[in-house]
Amino acid sequence: MPAKFTWMRKGVIFVLILTVVCLLSFSNRAYQRISDLTDSVRQLYSKPITEWPRPVIDSGVHWTEFKSLPKVDTSYFTLMEQPDVKLGKFLFFDPILSGSNQISCSSCHNPQTSWADKLTVPVGNDHLEGTRNTPSLLNVYARKSFFWDGRAGSLEEQALGPIEAHHEMNMDLTKLIPKLKAIPAYNELFAAAFGEVEYSMPEVMRALAAFQRTLTSRRSRFDEFVDGNYKILRDDEIRGLHLFRTKARCMNCHHGEFFTDEAFHNIGLTYYKRKYQDLGRYEVTKKADDVGKFRTPSLRDVMNTDPWMHNGLFWDMTGLLNMYNSGMQMNSPKPGEKESDPLYPVTDPLMRKLNLSKDEIQDLKAFLEAITATKYRMHRPEKLPR
């Protein structure tokens, strides 16, 4: 082999070795930076929550600090035997509440799937599809409003909606009470729950609400962390916690014990004047400022309640976080457009481009895993009153 080719080959090998050395050096420096960042962030949060750094909150936003869920209440099983709760559980799982005698509340709020249904939108009476994703019933006792548009102000009021809706349970309310009263076992349950043999729809709704108030999340690893077990979260989850409170701006809407502000926001998924248009809270209030607004969901057990958003649009959390990372300003009107069309939806100014890196998005996702507890799969009644 000529000498010049030998030297060329040696030169190529030298360049390759130098490149590998540089890459390893860069990788080691990057790893060290991440390690140093993790150590400093862990120090910030490995202390009582009252001493944590204040989160990044926009002016005018009223927020509350995170709070851990209480430990398991030893009176839970006693609670489940209360007459109104026991009756409510039977009613919740009983398809007798539907016009077809085939659909129960649990058809969409399944205990096996964190009290939602794992569908983009629910399928109800006569195989009709709904228009909005089924929210989980976990922790509904703490909600201040119900449905994505907040049209119900109490659990009792909420219970009536699905029973009547033609595309859900399609029950003629004038026929429901006679159906129940034809079953002696139900008459006994109502008498035990409310002290009277006569009952009507208000008692049905009270019993359903009593049962639903028992549906609570279990404690997550994050709850243990807040209560002092500072080793229970992984490094990526710690970094995600910090991002959630700072750069990712999540705490503007997701804060407190249940990671929700209980308010309504337009995040840009209105589909105004298109096939999947949904004007959200506007349909309840008729206020132009409410066009496209939906209730902020709780993030408790969020990784168990996919798909996400009011329309069930996202099945992948990385994709959802990328959407937030973009800022979602696609529905904001151009100059003069709002004046000519008062109903043109305006994306909430809290939505901004975040400039999160791919690694940061994965850290944020890891934190959402940390606030998701193991599922509690309640057993359905072995036998219904008949």
UniProtKB/TrEMBL annotation:
Pathway: One-carbon metabolism; methylamine degradation. It comes from the Bacteria. Its main location: periplasm. InterPro entries: Cyt_c-like_dom, Cyt_c-like_dom_sf, Cytochrome_c_Peroxidase/MauG, Di-haem_cyt_c_peroxidsae. GO terms for cellular component: periplasmic space. Residues 83-194, 235-372 form the Cytochrome c domain. One of its GO terms (molecular function) is metal ion binding. Keywords: Electron transport, Heme, Iron, Metal-binding, Oxidoreductase, Periplasm, Peroxidase, Signal, Transport. It is found in: Periplasm. Pfam families: CCP_MauG. Transmembrane segments: none annotated. Involved in methylamine metabolism. Essential for the maturation of the beta subunit of MADH, presumably via a step in the biosynthesis of tryptophan tryptophylquinone (TTQ), the cofactor of MADH. This is Methylamine utilization protein MauG. The lineage of its organism: Bacteria, Pseudomonadati, Bacteroidota, Sphingobacteriia, Sphingobacteriales.
